[in-house]
Amino acid sequence: MNKLVVATNNAHKLSEIRAIIGDDIELLTLADINCFDDIPETADTLEGNALQKARYIYEKYGVDCFADDTGLEVTALGGGPGVHTARYAYADRHDPKANTEKLLRELEGAADRSAQFRTVVALILGGEEHLFEGIVRGQIPTEERGTDGFGYDPVFAPEELGKTFAEVGPEVKNEVSHRARAVKKLAAFLKSL
Known about the structure:
By secondary structure, this protein is α/β, with parallel strands linked by helices. The protein is 34% helix and 24% strand. The chain is built from five helices and seven strands. The protein has helices at 11-21, 46-61, 96-106, 165-176, 178-192, and strands spanning 3-6, 26-28, 65-74, 80-82, 114-125, 128-139, 157-158. Strands 1, 2, 3, 4, 5, 6 and 7 form a seven-stranded mixed sheet that branches. The chain starts with a strand and ends with a helix. The model has no long low-confidence stretch (mean pLDDT 94).
């Protein structure tokens, strides 16, 4: 196996994954296989969404692939926004700035600001399905901090860093992030084959 499709066209996500997987495997994007479909994500769990995306690619295009789904799970919000993380502010579109603003607004005055980011990667290789999970526990600060990052990076501070992902930059984030932890498990599995 020398090629693997990543079910994304997100440049930030792809660069994080490439940095971990390395050059042994050529990673292809959805655009590389001419997939411009709006792939459904209708499951009520991260595992379900990741598998749904991977199965869609595998069944329609017949290629080995992996997909991920990530959720921010905030204790004071009963584990939300969870599977709705990307479309937290608006159900019909991604708006990272509006998402972080809504999160901070909903946590105003909250004593418990603990949260975790969780990523599940679903790999389909030769028709076999495999799941890998990465979790980072941390806190939601009372305001955005840092400018080097995307999405929720300015409002999530992992326990081991004490700073937000946006304050530490992509190199440090790639070492400890939820996606990095899940992708490192995926990479170890692929190297073991």
